[in-house]
Structure formats: C-alpha cells, structure tokens
Amino acid sequence: MELTDILKLLPHRYPILLVDRVLELIPGKRVVALKNVTANESFFQGHFPGYPVMPGVLIGEAMAQAGCVMMLSGIDNPENKVPFFAGIDRCKFRRPVVPGDQLRLELDVLRQRGGLSKLQGRAMVGEELAAEAEIMAVLGERE
C-alpha cells in the first residue's frame, strides 16, 4: 500500500503521519509497515541537539498508526471512522532510533471486540528490536 492509499485511511498528516508504506496487510489480523526516519524530522530539532534520537512515544504512535491502517482496511466506509489510541501496555524500548534508520512496524491482533482492538506491536530496525508494546486502539465515529 502506497502513501496515497494510507492518506485515504488515516486522518494524520505531516508532521505527525508516521507510516510511509504498508508491505503486508491482512485486514483484522496483521500489518507490516515502514517509517523512514530522516534527519529532517521536526522532532530531532529538540530531541536531542547533537545526538538526535526518535522519541519513544513517537515509536509507539507509529505502531498505533500502522495498526489503525489495518483496522480501517477491514471495514465498510472507513472514511466515516476515526482511530483513537486507547492505551499501551508492556512497552519496552530496546535500542535508539536515529536518522537514517528504517522502522519496520509489525502488528498482530491479540483481541478484537466491537471497534476496540488489542495489538502486539514490534518496531524493528533491520534485525534488531527497537521497541515492543501491546497497543489498544478504538474506532470512533467521524463527525
């Protein structure tokens, strides 16, 4: 899935859109997406000058956005829904993410009930685990 298709599903836009491409998508089951981390990211200006590191909360947000692409892909009329980050559990950061890294966002559904999904997320850089978490997201009605 290319960026133009992602933009049709997610309401996020620059500078907070954190999914560049979807490599694998099984609606309601699994998604694998990419975030190319460049030196031009606005958050690197202050985190940290001289030693740029992607904030961990944004890695979690990137995982949540990828999960929401999967959730929205499997429903009718996704343009009428808006995804909300509902929670995060068991979050661990294993390595810094720096300019030039490519984050591979892998999310698998643990549970779904109604519009609420619990996902197991992993953010990889190459073969290294950068972060992992259980992510909860819910689909609300767009007004």
UniProtKB/TrEMBL annotation:
InterPro entries hit by this protein: FabA_FabZ, FabZ, HotDog_dom_sf
Cellular compartment(s): Cytoplasm
Main EC class the enzyme belongs to: lyase
CC terms in the record's Gene Ontology section: cytoplasm; membrane
Principal location: cytoplasm
GO terms under biological process: fatty acid biosynthetic process; lipid A biosynthetic process
EC number: 4.2.1.59
SUPFAM superfamilies recorded: Thioesterase/thiol ester dehydrase-isomerase (SSF54637)
Pfam families: FabA
Keywords assigned: Cytoplasm, Lipid A biosynthesis, Lipid biosynthesis, Lipid metabolism, Lyase
Molecular function terms from GO: (3R)-hydroxyacyl-[acyl-carrier-protein] dehydratase activity
HAMAP family associated with the record: FabZ
Protein task: Involved in unsaturated fatty acids biosynthesis. Catalyzes the dehydration of short chain beta-hydroxyacyl-ACPs and long chain saturated and unsaturated beta-hydroxyacyl-ACPs.
NCBIfam families: fabZ, PRK00006.1
Name of the featured protein: 3-hydroxyacyl-[acyl-carrier-protein] dehydratase
Organism of derivation: marine metagenome
